[in-house]
Specification:
The protein contains 22 helices and 13 strands. The protein has 594 residues and is of the alpha/beta class. The chain has a six-stranded parallel sheet. Strand 9, helix 20 and strand 10 form a beta-alpha-beta unit. Helix 6 crosses helix 7, helix 10 packs across helix 14 and helix 16 crosses helix 18. The chain binds cobalamin. Cobalamin (B12) binds next to helix 18, strand 9, strand 10 and helix 22.
Length: 594
């Protein structure tokens, strides 16, 4: 059972109604400004444009862009549109990949761990970008859901953006060194109210995969999350909410079913369907097959039940690093041609099976919403206060919500103690990866590790959690004791945990293009704590060099080795390192724990 005193223990918290009124007040000074897109299309908002396009059965295209260098980003904004146009493809909207350092208020912006994205300093920078081509600018990541939500939303509005934010990130993302989730929730509610108070229709965007969908084991919970968010954003704050999904929707049938289900529970036009980036595991040729597979599913979905979502052809280099301009153009032209090829294909598809799954998603998603709302009310959370609702849900987290209120029947053998109504493929995929990783480890290596009594502190320094789950599973099977080092953890906290727990090794995943800076900071903290603990590091081991003019990250594996870390390209590398440690341990030291 949940209890308010465990979730919101603070004696005084801001009142949602006051934050909403503050946001509404700001709408007097901050309104939707002009943009090349609105002028060119003659529509008042992207939502209006989307409705018109969907009514005429035109499938729209989304491109994700935003390089660290602002000049390159402006050039890309114009060039991608123009080069696609010359090849007969239309890019309708850009998702702008802002850097995670944009989440801090400008005066407290922490650039120590600047990632791979774009940093814009104030409204004029936003507007200058959106002026470069008649493409709808969607300022999404690191806008809503962060301490800088209000200032970023104002800037996006004044640049003529009418799809804003990524509310999904509010629920799961944490900025390095930032612990004040009350300030984050306060800024988010105020910014949402500012959006709601616009005279022009402005869509609040929420990417479910950035939120809880990446971690729910039941896809019905993801549909339930849509309904809960709609209650908070549409019913309580009054802004139209538009959902995006896709990264983790690997099974084509369930992907199509989710599209049909979403269309049934929402009549707000969708922003975009995200690419199935989890499927990108190979080289370009293999990834093109994944691209074709999910795009065709999304195209058929839009033909069968238009929702206004743009399709999103993700460049095939996505699993290596952030893609460059040529790669984005190629993917857009590929998608445009695929739409042409798919022209007469719809009658060849029977939607019966997908519709049957959609029925379950809608029914069980509603059940999840009802159970969560009843549970929150029972715990003493005010269901009519958007601030309390958002903060409470963030603090409870996806795991607990699913364990307590998931619609699936109880089954202690399953990861959340429930048999999912519609199983999400993500955890199954991680399990498969774990099995194949284990199969690669020789019995000799296993023998060394087993029985050595090793313990590993396993963590990630950003939101990417799948590798952590994978490493935990494999290490566990190898007989290593697992210590949870957390997600989005800071270097000093992790070193302190290593000292406190006496872990034999730290196993860290890092993906956000800050591998070297973070490893150096962590190793510095480990030294300060006067402990000797090896660091195994994996993920995307890259970083944008400080003097780079390409805005693309480069690999830093050699530098990491030089700094003293053990680079793990895969799990097998880690197994060898553990075996070595076990052997050294058996000769050089006594076991540290009973
Ligand atoms: C899933 C995903 C997400 C999900 C994460 C969901 C979750 N809760 O885990 C979501 C959608 C939330 C997300 C968000 C972001 N993402 Co992301 N994401 C990915 C994606 C698609 C897959 C990564 C993954 O989990 N793979 C599964 C694991 C199991 O496989 P793997 O990565 O190959 O790992 C293997 C090895 O590396 C090794 N390994 C990994 N770690 C470790 C650790 C140890 C100790 C060991 C031994 C081994 C090991 O084991 C694995 C098996 O061999 C990649 C692209 C891709 N296709 O790879 C981008 C990617 C990693 N993301 C990226 C970015 C930029 C982001 C965002 C900043 C985007 C944004 N603007 O919001 C945010 C992060 C914000 C934050 N606060 O941290 C970039 C990183 C760019 C770079 N460094 O060059 C990538 C490469 C996409 C891209 N091209 O832009 N992301």
């Amino acid at each position: 059972m949940l209890d308010r005193k465990d979730i919101l223990p603070e004696p005084e918290l801001p009142k949602g109604v006051e934050l909403v009124s503050e946001g509404q007040g700001q709408a007097r000074d901050w309104q939707v400004g002009p943009s090349a897109f609105l002028t060119h299309t003659g529509h008042r908002s992207e939502a209006e444009f989307k409705r018109a396009r969907a009514a005429s059965a035109r499938i729209m295209q989304h491109a994700q862009m935003g390089f660290r260098d602002a000049g390159k980003s402006r050039r890309a904004y114009a060039e991608i549109y123009e080069r696609c146009r010359q090849q007969g493809a239309t890019v309708d909207r850009y998702g702008i990949s802002l850097d995670w350092s944009m989440g801090y208020p400008a005066e407290r912006r922490d650039t120590r761990f600047a990632g791979t994205g774009l940093v814009l300093n104030g409204p004029e920078d936003f507007a200058e970008l959106a002026r470069m081509a008649p493409v709808a600018a969607h300022f999404g990541d690191f806008v809503l859901g962060f301490p800088a939500a209000v200032e970023n939303t104002r800037a996006a509005l004044s640049a003529g953006s009418t799809s804003i934010g990524n509310l999904g990130q509010f629920f799961t993302f944490r900025l390095p060194g930032w612990d004040d989730d009350v300030a984050t929730a306060r800024a988010t509610v105020t910014a949402l109210a500012l959006i709601a108070a616009q005279k022009t229709e402005v869509l609040v965007h929420s990417n479910l995969d950035d939120g809880f969908a990446a971690l729910f084991t039941d896809t019905a919970c993801s549909l339930g999350a849509v309904l809960i968010e709609k209650h908070i954003i549409e019913d309580l704050i009054g802004a139209p909410l538009s959902h995006c999904y896709g990264h983790h929707f690997t099974d084509p049938m369930k992907r199509l079913a989710f599209h049909l289900a979403l269309g049934r529970v929402s009549d707000t036009p969708g922003t975009m369907v995200y690419g199935n980036t989890m499927a990108y595991r190979r080289d370009a040729a293999g990834n093109f097959a994944s691209l074709a597979s999910y795009l065709l599913t999304d195209i058929i979905g839009q033909m069968a039940a238009p929702t206004g979502h743009a399709i999103n052809p993700v460049p095939v280099t996505e699993n290596v690093r952030i893609p460059d301009i040529d790669e984005i153009v190629d993917a857009q032209c590929f998608a445009s041609r695929l739409i042409e090829h798919a022209g007469g294909l719809l009658p060849a598809f029977s939607l019966e099976a997908a519709t049957a799954i959609a029925d379950i998603l809608v029914r069980e998603g509603r059940r999840f919403r009802d159970r969560v709302l009843a549970g929150l009310e029972g715990a003493g959370i005010d269901l009519n206060d958007p601030f309390e609702m958002l903060l409470a849900i963030r603090r409870i987290g996806s795991r607990r919500l699913e364990e307590l209120y998931g619609p699936g029947r109880k089954d202690e053998a399953r990861p959340r103690g429930r048999a999912p109504a519609v199983a999400s493929p993500t955890l199954d995929e991680i399990e498969e990866l774990a099995h194949s990783a284990l199969a690669e480890i020789t019995s000799e290596t296993r023998g060394h590790i087993a029985g050595a009594g090793l313990s590993a502190l396993i963590a990630t320094m950003d939101v990417h959690e799948h590798s952590k789950l994978l490493v935990e599973q494999v290490f566990g099977e190898l007989g290593v004791t697992i210590i949870d080092g957390g997600v989005s953890v800071d270097a000093d906290d992790l070193a302190a945990m290593a000292a406190e727990t006496g872990a034999d090794v730290i196993a860290l995943s890092t993906y956000n293009g800050v591998a070297l800076e973070f490893a150096q900071a962590l190793l510095g903290e480990v030294e300060k704590a006067e402990i000797h603990v090896p660091l195994l590091i994996g993920g995307r081991l890259n970083q944008i060099p400080r003097n780079s003019n390409s805005s693309l990250p480069v690999e830093v594996e050699d530098e990491l080795v030089e700094a003293g870390a053990v680079v793990c390209r895969n799990i097998a590398d880690a197994a060898l390192a553990l075996a070595k440690l076990a052997q050294e341990g058996s000769t050089a030291r006594e076991p540290r724990r009973p």
